[in-house]
Amino acid sequence: MRGPMGDFVRRALSWGIVSSLLLPILALVVIGLGALLAALGDNVGARFCGRVALLSAVVWLLAVVATAILAGIAGLAADEERRCGEPRRHRPGKGPRRHGRRRLRGRAEGDPRQDAWGDGNGDGVRPSRSDSGSG
After folding, report:
1. Can you give the residue range of the structural domain that contains 42?
2. Are 39 and 3 in contact (CB under 8 A)?
3. Considering the domain boundaries, does residue 118 fall inside one?
4. The whole model's pTM is what?
């Protein structure tokens, strides 16, 4: 993804990942602080910490959803760019991969090895009994 939109998506995705990792830690620390304040008898401070923890949990949930959406956008844009960009080049010094295709080679007359069809004569037709000369 290139251009200003790509920079925005990349930056927002980075912030989303960081906030998705750090906001739960913040919420747990604030919940612990609220429990400590409640144990000390400071109900106003405990209630404030509870609300801050709730707010950080909501922001964390929004960050997770936004990160997932931005990751999808970045993935689709990268796929589109790969399809519409320059054609893929072969590996340096090597040709394209054949992915299991075998090149058929002609066999010399009387070669005992079988060809790709398994008939030994190279044309895909099995010799009949009358062609064998014994008949």
Report:
1. 11-84
2. no
3. no
4. 0.54
